[in-house]
C-alpha cells in the first residue's frame, strides 16, 4: 500500500497575539474578540496586506538557516458584531521547497491589524510611516499568499509601504 504524502497547511492563525491587538484597540475604545472559525463566506469585510517576520526551514537535511521577509501575506477578516481573525500565509524554502510557518514580527502584526479595524470602524487614523523598504525580489512561486490570490505582491501588482496599510 503506497504511503500518503503528508500535507502541511499553507497558512496559520495566531490567536496568541490577540491580547496585544486588544490592548491597542482599547486605547481607541474598541473591543473585538478573536474569531477562531475562519470562514470567508460569513465575514463582513476582508483585506489583504503584508507584515514582517522570519522563517526557518524545519526539514532536517536542508542547509538553509532561514530567511527574513518584509512581505508575509496576510488576510484580515472582520465578523459581525465585533470579532476578527487573520490568516498568515506561509512561504516555501528556496532550497528544498518545504513549507515554513513564520515567526512573526509581533509589532508589525499588531500595527497592521489595529490600523485596519480602526479604519473599518470609521476612526480617523494616520497612515504609519515605514522606514524598512525591502530590496529583495518577491518570489511568487514560494509565497502561499500569491498562490491563493491574497498577496499584494502577486500578479505583478507591487504595492509598497505605506500604500497598502
TrEMBL record:
<protein>
    <recommendedName>
        <fullName>3CxxC-type domain-containing protein</fullName>
    </recommendedName>
</protein>
<keyword id="KW-0479">Metal-binding</keyword>
<dbReference type="Pfam" id="PF13695">
    <property type="entry name" value="Zn_ribbon_3CxxC"/>
</dbReference>
<feature type="domain" description="3CxxC-type">
    <location>
        <begin position="50"/>
        <end position="149"/>
    </location>
</feature>
<dbReference type="InterPro" id="IPR027377">
    <property type="entry name" value="ZAR1/RTP1-5-like_Znf-3CxxC"/>
</dbReference>
<keyword id="KW-0862">Zinc</keyword>
<keyword id="KW-0863">Zinc-finger</keyword>
<dbReference type="GO" id="GO:0008270">
    <property type="term" value="F:zinc ion binding"/>
</dbReference>
Amino acid at each position: 500500500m503506497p504511503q500518503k504524502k503528508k500535507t502541511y497547511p499553507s497558512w496559520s492563525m495566531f490567536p496568541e497575539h490577540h491580547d496585544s491587538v486588544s490592548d491597542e484597540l482599547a486605547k481607541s475604545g474598541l473591543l473585538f474578540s478573536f474569531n477562531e472559525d475562519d470562514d470567508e463566506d460569513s465575514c463582513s469585510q476582508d483585506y489583504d496586506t503584508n507584515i514582517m517576520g522570519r522563517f526557518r526551514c524545519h526539514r532536517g537535511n536542508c542547509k538553509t538557516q532561514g530567511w527574513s521577509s518584509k512581505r508575509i501575506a496576510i488576510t484580515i477578516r472582520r465578523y459581525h458584531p465585533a470579532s476578527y481573525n487573520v490568516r498568515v500565509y506561509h512561504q516555501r524554502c528556496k532550497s528544498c521547497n518545504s513549507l515554513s510557518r513564520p515567526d512573526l514580527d509581533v509589532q508589525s502584526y499588531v500595527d497592521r491589524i489595529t490600523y485596519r479595524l480602526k479604519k473599518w470602524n470609521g476612526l480617523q487614523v494616520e497612515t504609519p510611516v515605514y522606514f524598512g523598504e525591502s530590496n529583495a525580489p518577491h518570489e511568487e512561486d514560494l509565497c502561499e499568499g500569491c498562490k491563493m490570490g491574497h498577496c499584494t505582491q502577486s500578479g505583478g501588482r507591487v504595492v509598497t509601504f505605506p500604500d497598502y496599510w
